């Protein structure tokens, strides 16, 4: 626990009340011990615990109270605590835990430790806040003792020792440190020096604070040692003596004295401490380890302790005169949470109490084996296969990284490696196998030496609970150990809508105890948190986020945060090169995993993006002498490509067809011959001899071998290749389906073909074995026939998908593939720019984004101001102002200013799609198999009960065959015929052919449908949810109305439009662009006047000077005059000629040649902007603005030369076809809902224009998914129509996601249906097409199943009594007929016509009307589930209804000119001073 003091400068305090407020507020913060605020000095001195607070959080706390806080000194000063010993009375009413918690509640008490015998409490406190007497009074009956507890006699400790220890504090400036590995290296190296008591190195402050004993080491030596480690060191302050507290003296007495002067004492001391190894069960994490170490190390009798989580052990160096082994065991078991089970392992019983012996080595460094160090052993491993020193480096690099390895030396000459290791952590066999894994032959040498190697004792630190296990020698190991106390977790965060949510979470969590850093990605909805597991757990972090009002769940897969890099590495020649790259990368801090393949020249690397970036990794490999580049990502949307599948199924079809044609030929021939045979049989009752003679006379029935006919032999030969090659893909798919315990079409096909083939083959073998005279009936014709039809169906299906996908791939625009990375010098001076792949941008990079560019990654703005269009992500049409400190989101578009951003991170999501036909076969397959099995057993039973039936109908019956065999053969024949006829060729074609034609027709009509499921699902849809921005509306603001606030003789209409249009022509803001566009259109001119002194105040408005508009007005008036004259001539009303030309003649006097160009001072903006510039907004103008705002418009004021002259209303306009589309969907029986992130006023206004009555407003993008889910939970199928990134999760969640083709790539990817044209009538068309296609699929199923339904019972022999027997060829013929009828049925879909807008408009005439506000129910956010009106108080409702009815009265009174209300399709029309008379009469 480190206590520090910081001085804050506080501005804005006026009286003692302010002082008290700050002291009370900051004093309550966790970890703050004392606050002293001075009104005169305008400062606050805070003493705090640096583990719980930082200067920045304290500054922010003062800032949050409304005062300006500055850090007077960025380096907090360490406050060294004092210690007292309290003797706890045996009759004390309080337990030791209660005493601890009672003491720790008091400010100024830093730490409390209780001894094992529960008699003494060691209290660490800050003497400037509290003193020993006050502490002793807090524990009733406790004795207060500043000196250490009495030392037991015989320990050889000298009370005068304290005078010899003259400790000094030294502050050093250390330059050249880049990461925590550097700090660990310095702390590890300096901490081992003789005379060093404690060292703390700060990376942020680039300094080291060292506490050392001046009589053993000098400041110059310390500085020299730091420089020897490769850093630059200089003295910051002269060394000053340190007053040692009682606890420090006690701790130092327990350490071993060092130096030659105390050699005798050293010897006796060495014999006084013993080492014991305990086995500890029940430790779960590093938090348990720290807990045990901190508690046990606080015991006066324990010199050191090293706990290993992996080995479940604790090595304790203790004084047997003060404590016994049993007491130590009980002390560990008593450590919170008191669940540890401690025992002495058998193998350590003998060595548990050995005294550490002094090493014979003589050196100025401490020469004693630290008893905390476990045994060290040395093994020699013989290594064969090394060729060069690169191999040596590879082995040394990899093995030195293994846990427990202290050092390794590999000799190329001796072909062996000498390894020094810790037997508690690894063994020789593990080391040998790790060398073999690298591709070398390794064997254990006989010379294994158990050695006790002396190592310097780590100096005991002053902080009692931070006694760490002894460090390993290598700096990288130190780095690893240092980072182990910091864990990382990922939390899924829902409910974030914008950058301020991100900032809110990050700011609040950074203040929490135990959290080191947090990074939140808005798009991925993910927070990456680095925390101390000893202090806080991931579930607690998620709870903290939930308390802020967001949804949070801990993500199990923590590996997601690791960066993955795929590289192509050139220049590798042998395995040694591979090991060289792998070992170098694995040594690199931040690389977690590395695998290099020599054959493919590829490297797969996992790294921690916080420590290292992809460019650093590439540089490491380049430094080794290899060339490397990124594996190029396929940006051609090839995952949408179906070429491979099309090729595969085409090949399968062709192979099956080639062999199927001859099989069909043979089958037709046999059908003819069979019919002749049956005729002959009908006429003469033939004997078996005659049968045999007739058989042998037929060419195909001629027997090549006894029992093997030409027909069966040819069929077998033709069937084998089809079974092997044609059916290959079916077998693979069927295997995968069965592995996942599902039954799809492939399973049934494979089952039928395999059984038919195997049965036929076995029957042939049996016939040949029996030398049968009559040839058996085989089913070799089944597999080729089946495979032909099914592979044709699959081929057509993928061709259909391929066509849709090609169009999709063309739609998906090129994403931002490159980023401009810049290098900044001091004061943010641009030093260099570099174009790199987006994949190579790493955390902390400074990326430059030019106007119009997409942000390649998430980041924070560090320089520049701009407007950013985030509509793709948040759905808001208006852009957001970005200034330094604001966060930006990948994919949003920078509009006007150039920005420099610091990269934080990126994220992405996808949505799955499921096949349709397999669902049906999931039920169909098991049922057919069941029928087949039932048939088999039924005929076996029938056969044994009544053999005559079988004898009568079994074609190949022969007296020589036994009855049982005949029955089984007949039963098998019947059951296989069932499988054959049921095998769903036509069922396989029913869906794909209809889907193919349906998607083809859709594509012709501009509707891209991805596969069968969306088509099948769209007809079930009951609710259609529309996004507002960019879907129902255009997504870009337009001028709805202009009101003139001055008489036209003061400022003519055209003149005002010219001035305002010119003023806004320099603005990049969408409102400004809309105004300029409107003015140009009204004035019918592409160019306007000149604008100078242009100034923008974000959120308020603009000010500028406008000149050179006279020429523009002159041209416009000339045109008006010419038109007037034309009209006059046409109508021939001569007497009116003078009047009509008069206005033009008046203006004609202002010719640009005769009049000097006038300069106008212009202000355009909101009320506040006018007030700031000293202009008063009249109440009637304010009312008019409020009315516009109530309708969801943005009202802007314009002032020329200090006079308010116009009010411009701007809004996002509704698409002209939206109302008709909504009406048609409702008439189709669908519920239509509007869902938007916009405010309720705008949402209500838009809904009333298009006729939607149910509105969800202010729905956060992440809540759109929940809203869709909510509707689905009510049992409704939902179609979602959207266009932005913010809609994509909802599109994926909806039963059918429909994306507008002009929308974003992400939305198009997530949707099931994509409308190429930006036309909402296509939503109607897509649902209509789906209904027609599903109807067609159902008809197809009737065609497909009717054959099965009739054929299966006949095949099963149900109709045998009436003489209906089904031969296998009949099954095949029925299959062919059903397939043909299915394909013809599907082709009828080609006739589909899209419903035309004209017809629908004609039908809807008179039925469409605008909804009044009272008819629309608006639900705010996600929580409100109820329908009906929003939940308002009774009074609010009365006011709302009365306002609505008054409005409707007014609207009825209005004249025919009220265009805005009566002609919704012409939103772009201007309502000038001739429209809405009530509003303009000001």
What does this structure look like?
It is built from 48 helices and 54 strands. It is an alpha+beta fold and 1482 residues long. The longest helix is centred in the middle third of the chain and has 41 residues, at 643-683. 40% of the residues are buried.
Task: List the main descriptive attributes of the protein structure presented here.
flat, 1482 residues, 54 strands, disordered C terminus, 8-stranded mixed β-sheet
What's the alpha carbon Rg, rounded to whole Å?
44 Å
> Approximately what portion of the residues adopt beta-strand conformation?
15-25%
Biggest beta sheet summary: 8 strands, mixed
Which structural class do the helices and strands define? alpha+beta
Given the C-alpha coordinates, what overall shape results?
Answer: flat
Number of helices: 48
- Compute the number of strand runs: 54
């Amino acid at each position: 626990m480190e206590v520090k003091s910081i001085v804050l400068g506080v501005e804005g305090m006026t009286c003692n009340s302010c002082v008290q407020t700050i002291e009370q507020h900051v004093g309550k913060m966790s970890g703050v011990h004392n606050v002293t605020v001075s009104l005169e000095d305008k400062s606050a001195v805070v003493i705090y615990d640096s583990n719980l607070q930082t200067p920045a959080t304290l500054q922010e706390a003062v800032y949050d109270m409304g005062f300006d806080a500055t850090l007077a000194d960025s380096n907090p000063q360490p406050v060294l605590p004092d210690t007292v010993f309290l003797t706890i009375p045996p009759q004390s009413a309080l337990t030791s835990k209660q005493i601890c918690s009672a003491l720790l509640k008091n400010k100024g008490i830093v730490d409390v430790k209780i001894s094992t015998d529960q008699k003494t409490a060691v209290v660490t406190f800050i003497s400037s806040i509290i003193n020993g007497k006050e502490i002793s009074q807090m524990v009733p009956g406790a004795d207060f003792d500043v000196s250490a507890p009495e030392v037991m006699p015989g320990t050889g400790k000298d009370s005068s020792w304290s005078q010899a220890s003259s400790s000094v504090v030294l502050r050093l400036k250390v330059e050249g440190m880049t990461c925590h590995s550097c700090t660990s290296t310095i702390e590890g190296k300096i901490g081992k020096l003789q005379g060093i008591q404690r060292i703390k190195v700060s990376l942020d402050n680039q300094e080291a604070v060292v506490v050392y004993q001046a009589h053993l080491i000098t400041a110059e030596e310390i500085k020299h040692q730091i420089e020897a480690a490769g850093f630059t060191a200089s003295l910051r302050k002269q060394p000053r003596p340190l007053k040692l507290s009682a606890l420090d003296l006690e701790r130092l007495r327990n350490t071993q004295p060092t130096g030659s002067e105390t050699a005798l004492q050293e010897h006796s001391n060495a014999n006084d401490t013993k080492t014991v190894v305990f086995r500890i069960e029940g430790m779960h994490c590093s938090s348990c380890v720290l807990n045990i170490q901190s508690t046990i190390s606080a015991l006066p009798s324990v010199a050191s302790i090293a706990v290993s989580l992996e080995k479940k052990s604790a090595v304790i160096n203790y004084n047997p005169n003060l404590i016994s082994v049993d007491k130590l065991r009980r002390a560990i078991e008593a450590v919170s949470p008191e669940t540890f089970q401690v025992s002495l392992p058998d193998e350590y019983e003998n060595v548990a109490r050995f005294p550490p012996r002094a090493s014979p080595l003589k050196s100025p460094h401490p020469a004693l084996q630290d008893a905390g160090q476990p045994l060290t052993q040395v093994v020699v491993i013989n290594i064969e296969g090394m060729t060069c020193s690169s191999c040596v480096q590879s082995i040394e690099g990899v093995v030195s990284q293994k846990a427990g390895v202290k050092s390794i030396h590999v000799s190329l000459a001796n072909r062996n490696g000498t390894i020094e290791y810790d037997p508690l952590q690894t063994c020789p066999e593990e080391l040998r196998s790790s060398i073999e894994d690298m591709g070398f032959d390794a064997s254990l040498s006989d010379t294994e030496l158990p050695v006790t190697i002396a190592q310097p004792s780590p100096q005991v630190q002053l902080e009692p609970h931070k006694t760490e296990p002894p460090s390993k020698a290598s700096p990288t190991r130190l780095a690893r150990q240092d980072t182990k106390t910091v864990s990382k977790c990922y939390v899924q965060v829902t409910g974030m809508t914008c950058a301020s949510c991100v900032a809110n979470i990050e700011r609040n969590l950074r203040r929490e105890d135990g959290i080191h850093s947090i990074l939140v990605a808005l798009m991925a909805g993910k927070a990456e948190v680095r925390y101390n597991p000893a202090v806080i757990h991931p579930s607690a972090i998620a709870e903290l986020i939930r308390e802020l009002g967001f949804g949070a769940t801990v993500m199990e897969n923590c590996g997601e945060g690791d960066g993955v890099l795929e590289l192509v590495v050139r220049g590798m020649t042998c395995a040694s090169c591979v090991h060289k790259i792998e070992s170098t990368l694995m040594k690199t801090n931040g690389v977690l995993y590395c695998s290099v393949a020599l054959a493919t020249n590829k490297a797969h690397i996992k790294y921690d993006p916080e420590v290292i970036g992809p460019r650093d990794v590439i540089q490491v490999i380049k430094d080794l002498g290899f060339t490397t580049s990124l594996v190029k990502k396929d940006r051609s949307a090839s995952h949408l490509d179906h070429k491979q599948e099309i090729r595969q199924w085409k090949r399968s079809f062709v192979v099956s067809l080639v062999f199927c044609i001859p099989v069909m030929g043979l089958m037709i021939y046999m059908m003819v011959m069979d019919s002749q045979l049956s005729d002959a049989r009908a006429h003469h009752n033939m004997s078996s001899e005659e049968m045999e003679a007739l058989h042998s006379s037929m060419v195909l029935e001629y027997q090549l071998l006894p029992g093997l006919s030409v027909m069966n032999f040819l069929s077998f030969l033709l069937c084998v290749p089809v079974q092997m090659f044609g059916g290959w893909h079916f077998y693979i798919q069927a295997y995968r389906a069965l592995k996942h315990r599902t039954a799809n079409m492939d399973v049934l096909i494979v089952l039928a073909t395999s059984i038919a083939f195997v049965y036929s083959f076995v029957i042939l073998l049996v016939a040949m074995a029996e030398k049968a005279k009559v040839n058996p009936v085989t089913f070799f014709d089944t597999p080729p026939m089946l495979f032909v039809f099914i592979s044709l169906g699959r081929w057509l299906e993928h061709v259909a998908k391929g066509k849709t996908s090609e169009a999709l791939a063309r739609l998906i625009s090129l994403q931002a593939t490159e980023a401009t990375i810049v290098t900044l010098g001091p004061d943010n001076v641009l030093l260099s720019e570099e174009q790199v792949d987006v994949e190579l941008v790493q955390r902390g990079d400074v990326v430059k984004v030019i106007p119009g560019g997409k942000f390649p990654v998430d980041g924070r703005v560090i320089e520049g101001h701009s407007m950013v269009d985030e509509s793709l992500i948040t759905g808001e049409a208006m852009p957001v102002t970005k200034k330094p400190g604001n966060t930006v989101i990948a994919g949003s578009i920078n509009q006007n200013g150039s920005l420099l951003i610091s990269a934080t991170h990126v994220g992405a999501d996808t949505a799955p799609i499921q096949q349709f036909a397999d669902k049906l076969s999931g039920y169909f397959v098991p049922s057919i198999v069941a029928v087949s099995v039932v048939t088999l057993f039924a005929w076996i039973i029938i056969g044994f009960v009544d053999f005559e039936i079988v004898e009568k109908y079994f074609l190949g019956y022969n007296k020589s065959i036994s009855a049982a065999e005949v029955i089984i053969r007949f039963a098998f024949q019947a059951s296989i015929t069932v499988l054959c006829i049921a095998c769903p060729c036509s069922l396989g074609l029913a869906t794909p052919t209809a889907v193919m034609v349906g998607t083809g027709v859709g594509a012709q009509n501009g509707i891209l449908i991805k596969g069968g499921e969306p088509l099948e699902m769209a007809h079930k849809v009951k609710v259609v949810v529309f996004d507002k921005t960019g879907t129902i509306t255009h997504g870009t603001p337009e001028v709805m109305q202009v009101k003139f606030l001055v008489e036209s003789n003061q400022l003519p209409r055209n003149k005002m439009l010219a001035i305002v249009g010119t003023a806004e022509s320099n603005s990049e803001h969408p409102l400004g662009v809309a105004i300029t566009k409107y003015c140009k259109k009204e004035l019918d001119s592409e160019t306007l006047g000149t604008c100078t002194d242009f100034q923008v105040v974000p959120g308020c408005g603009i000010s500028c000077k406008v000149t050179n508009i006279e020429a523009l007005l002159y041209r416009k008036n000339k045109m008006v005059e010419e038109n007037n004259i034309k009209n006059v001539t046409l109508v021939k009303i001569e007497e009116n000629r003078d009047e009509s030309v008069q206005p033009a003649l008046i203006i004609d006097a202002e010719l640009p040649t005769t009049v000097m160009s006038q300069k106008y001072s212009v202000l355009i903006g909101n009320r506040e902007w006018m007030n700031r510039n000293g202009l008063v907004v009249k109440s009637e103008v304010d009312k008019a603005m409020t009315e516009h705002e109530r309708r969801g418009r943005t009202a802007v004021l314009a002032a020329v030369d200090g006079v308010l002259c116009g009010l411009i209303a701007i809004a996002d306009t509704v698409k002209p076809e939206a109302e008709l589309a909504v009406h048609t969907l409702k008439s189709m029986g669908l519920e239509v809902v509007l869902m938007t992130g916009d405010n309720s006023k705008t949402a209500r206004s838009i809904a009333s224009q298009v006729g939607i009555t149910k509105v969800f407003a202010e729905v956060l993008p992440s809540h759109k998914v929940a809203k869709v889910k909510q509707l689905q939970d009510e049992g409704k199928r939902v179609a979602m129509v959207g266009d932005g990134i913010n809609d994509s999760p909802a599109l994926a969640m909806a039963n059918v996601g429909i994306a507008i083709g002009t929308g974003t790539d992400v939305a198009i990817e997530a949707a099931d249906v994509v409308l190429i044209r930006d036309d909402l009538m296509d939503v109607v068309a897509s649902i209509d097409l789906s209904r027609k296609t599903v109807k067609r699929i159902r008809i197809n199923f009737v065609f497909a199943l009717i054959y099965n339904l009739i054929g299966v019972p006949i095949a099963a022999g149900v109709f045998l009594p009436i003489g209906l027997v089904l031969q296998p060829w009949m099954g095949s013929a029925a299959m062919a007929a059903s397939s043909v009828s299915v394909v013809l049925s599907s082709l009828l879909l080609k006739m589909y016509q899209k419903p035309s807008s004209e017809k629908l408009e004609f039908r809807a005439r008179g039925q469409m009307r605008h909804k009044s506000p009272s008819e629309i129910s608006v639900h705010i956010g996600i929580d409100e589930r109820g329908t009906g009106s929003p939940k308002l108080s009774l009074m609010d409702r009365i006011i709302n209804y009365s306002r609505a009815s008054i409005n409707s009265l007014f609207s009825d009174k209005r004249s025919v000119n009220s265009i805005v209300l009566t002609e919704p399709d012409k939103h772009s029309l201007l309502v000038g001073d001739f429209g809405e008379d009530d509003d303009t009469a000001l």
